[in-house]
């Protein structure tokens, strides 16, 4: 089948091509644009993913350059449709523009309803992380299958009120979980306190399921202090928004990132 090379590499048990449905087009095969060197997913390295939603649009190029120089491995992109979350943002044209500005892979946080039908619009690279929300579609497993041909890392996000057990049946279809510490949609919110306890529960749950290989990402109000707590719950990708980096002049980004790394290492 036309998906075979990618499928063989990334999901041996995915047998069928996605059916011909509205919105589905063949994914574009992208060449790698950014080499990470060592496979970060096999290392213990903690990753900071600066959240572009929190960036200053007037100084975007400068800010991206600064986080790149500080070693950012991903840019976290909040894609919002005004329906799944009460805000709009960082859409298809924005992502296309960003690709011209930088070759840093994207951590695409899709806060959109029924994401499975909109994937071809986004221009996903195989170095990217693509996160869909458990709450955004009635057919979560199908949505995760539709990501396979892109060869990207597949993450599932859960909102603060969604119980951990909901992800049990799709553990075989994901590389990571994005644990939302706020109700998604806006930068600059305060943590939902129960999510800290939830992170601990999630770590235990993954241990019980013998799935410690599943990467834990945390998103929303990730201060240095929350980062340190969450690190001890097994988090390895930290979304850095207004709570950590984008609260200062771009000239201090490097310093802020170093401080944050120290707190979570
Ligand atoms: C929240 C977003 C986050 C946000 C994080 O909806 O998913 O990515 O930008 O940044 P702060 O630190 O502002 O919460
Ligand atoms: Zn996000």
Layout of helices and strands:
Blueprint: H1 4-10, E1 47-50, H2 60-69, E2 75-81, E3 88-89, H3 92-101, E4 106-111, H4 119-122, E5 129-133, H5 140-147, E6 153-158, E7 176-180, H6 194-208, E8 215-219, H7 224-231, E9 237-240, H8 253-264
Parallel strand pairs: 1-9, 2-4, 4-5, 5-6, 6-7, 7-8, 8-9
Antiparallel strand pairs: 2-3
The chain binds D-xylitol-5-phosphate and zinc ion.
Explain what this protein looks like in three dimensions.
- It is a single chain.
- By secondary structure, the protein is of the alpha/beta class.
- It is built from eight helices and nine strands.
- A nine-stranded mixed sheet has the order 1-9-8-7-6-5-4-2-3, with helices on one face.
- Strand 5 (129-133), helix 5 (140-147) and strand 6 form a beta-alpha-beta unit.
- The longest helix is centred in the last third of the chain and has 15 residues, at 194-208.
- The structure holds D-xylitol-5-phosphate and zinc ion.
Largest sheet: 9 strands, mixed
Mean pLDDT: 87
The tally of strands reads: 9
Task: Tell me the helix content.
Answer: 25-40%
Q: State the low-pLDDT regions, or none.
A: 5-15, 27-41
| Derived structural class | alpha/beta
Beta-strand fraction estimate: 15-25%
Oligomerization status of the protein chains: single chain
The Cα radius of gyration reads 17 Å
Give the spatial strand order of the biggest sheet.
Answer: 1-9-8-7-6-5-4-2-3
Descriptive keywords:
about 260 residues, alpha/beta, 9-stranded mixed β-sheet, 9 strands, globular, binds D-xylitol-5-phosphate, binds zinc ion
């Amino acid at each position: 089948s036309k998906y075979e090379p990618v499928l063989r590499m990334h999901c041996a048990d995915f047998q069928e091509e996605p059916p011909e449905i509205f919105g589905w087009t063949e994914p574009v095969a992208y060449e790698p644009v950014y080499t990470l060197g060592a496979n970060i997913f096999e290392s213990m390295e903690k990753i900071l993913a600066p959240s572009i939603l929190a960036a200053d649009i007037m100084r975007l190029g400068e800010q991206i350059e600064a986080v790149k120089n500080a070693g950012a491995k991903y840019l976290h992109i909040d894609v919002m449709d005004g329906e799944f979350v009460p805000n709009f943002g960082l859409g298809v044209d924005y992502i296309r523009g960003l690709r011209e500005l930088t070759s840093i892979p994207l951590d695409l946080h899709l806060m959109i309803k029924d994401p499975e039908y909109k994937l071809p619009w986004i221009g996903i690279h195989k170095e990217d992380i693509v996160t869909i929300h458990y709450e955004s579609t009635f057919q979560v497993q199908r949505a995760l299958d539709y990501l396979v041909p892109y060869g990207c890392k597949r993450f599932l996000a859960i909102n603060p009120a969604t119980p951990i057990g909901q992800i049990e049946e799709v553990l075989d279809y994901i590389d990571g979980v994005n644990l939302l510490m706020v109700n998604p949609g806006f930068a600059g919110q305060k943590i939902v306190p129960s999510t800290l306890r939830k992170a601990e529960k999630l770590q235990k749950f993954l241990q019980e399921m013998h799935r410690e290989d599943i990467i834990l990402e945390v998103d929303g109000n990730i201060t240095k202090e929350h980062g340190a707590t969450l690190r001890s719950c097994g988090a390895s990708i930290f979304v850095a928004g207004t709570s950590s980096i984008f609260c200062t002049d771009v000239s201090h980004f490097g310093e802020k990132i170093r401080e944050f790394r120290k707190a979570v290492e």
